[in-house]
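Notes from hallway chat w/ T.B., transcribed later so I don't forget. T.B. wanted the structure written out for a chain they're using in a teaching module, and asked if we could keep both sequence and structure tokens in one place. Agreed to drop them here.
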Amino acid sequence: MKQLSASPHNQHLLDVAPLFEFSTLVNSTLDLKFILGSVLLTLMAKLRVTKSLVLLKMAPQATLKVGENRFRVENCKGIGSDLLRKDILLARPPKKDFSISSAAPPAWKIFSRAGIRQIFPIISHDTVLGYFGIGGRMDAKLKIPRKAGQFSSGEKEFVDIFINVAASAIDKGIAFQELHSVNRTLDGKIQELKTLFELSKEFTAVVDRERLLKLFSFTLMGHIGANRYAVCLKDGEVVASRINTLNLLKFKEKIFSLVTSPVRVSDFPKRKSLAAPKAACEAAGIVAIVPLQAQNEVKGIVCLGERLRGGGYSQADLEFIYSIGNLAIISLENSRLFNEAIEKQKMEDELTIAREIQNGLLPKSLPEIPGFQIAALNSPSKQVGGDYYDVIRTNNGKFVLAIGDVSGKGTPASLLMANVQATIRALVPFDLPLAECTARVNDLLFENTNANKFITFFWGALDPDSRTLRYVNAGHNHPFVIKADGTVKRLGEGGLILGIMKALMPYQEGSVAFETGDTLVLFTDGVSEAMDNDGNEYTEERLESFLRSVSSRPPQEIISAVQEDVARHVSGAPQSDDITLIVVKAV
């Protein structure tokens, strides 16, 4: 401890008993507020001053410049409370005591105006912890000659010793306060983790979207104390709102690109492009925005207004909301996927039923035709398709062969196909001319379907006795007749595609006679337009050439061979359209 000089003026300072008592007092506690108050009161009593304060160094902040330090008034006596918690910034904190004069740095001038005259540093382990400031001397009755407001060397020595004694206690008090603050923060984090754990169980147990949104809303109000809020998804849907977000949604793209972490509206970057979104947020009373993220993608945002108890949102509050929001958005995504899976399963079940019904509409077995062999194939690209074929025995011993391709695929096409099948089955027993029946089917479809729905259709009546086929082709792929001598005939007589317009012109009827070894091949464009991975089609030319090479085989073998050749062409590419084949061979 520094030795005092022995002048008569400071003999009263040589009594170490008060210092010992003070040291015992301040070192018996870790309460920083009590320590600072005791130091100020003791200083004021010993030096007979009426004003005092203490500043302590605050923890570093990211907003401070390099080398800059922030000090805060933690306690004061005899001074207005307006200085309490006041901050000053110092680039080079002085380590020696000094008098506040007109030449003092501007940061200290506010204390001069409050009557503080002398500043003493609080140093521990060569580190400035803070400063004591004293002033307001009661010098009137003192006989020690000095200028007004100054302190004698003995008094300064006393203050140095006094502060040395107090510095250790203050250092420990600061450390204890920081530890207490860390523990309190840790307790808060543990409580937040418990809350998040409980909420995660709640969120994962709920799959109903409305219940999830209510749970999230109650969490924002109950745990966070948000009085006004809005939850907006990336597609612009506002799923929960206690804020008018109408104007805000005009800028949703800018806001979604900006908000990748919790942000206060006041901290929006000062860019011209963000002036309007910021104004819209402020007009709606939004003070902070928190992103809702799933798989590193912003799926939505939470807009926060004022709190029920007032005050702003701390960074810890925003991070907690961010954690809750991520739980909520993941649960919402899971709910959406769950509902989609249910809907998909329902659709698949319905399609399975539709496929069974459609299979029931197609011939379960093909009739035996005297003098002919017959085989058929229907392979839809989806569970249900739009291709149609039928072989119907008539009352006069003839056999109607029919094949059609409904525009589109899937359920709508299958429904229209079923309609066509029912119509054909209803008309065949009347034994009307094919051209007349075709016109009736066309007009019926035109009146009962949309203009974008149509059918390419071919049918013919095969007479086993005369071995002749009378036919009408309504815009369908021309069937092949591969003659026994290898020549090929295409069957194209007919008219317009069914369902495009009313039959203003009569359909034309064609005929073809069969000899032993002749083969009739009816097909849909799922065969000729089958594509490989590069988009190259199989083509009718290739189909014709291949049919020539296999026409001597039985019908079922011809169909199998065509399937294999188409498969070789597509090389594993997915089937792009329904495939239907009918092969009839004269024997």
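Follow-up for T.B.: The chain has 13 helices and 22 strands. Might be a good example for the class.
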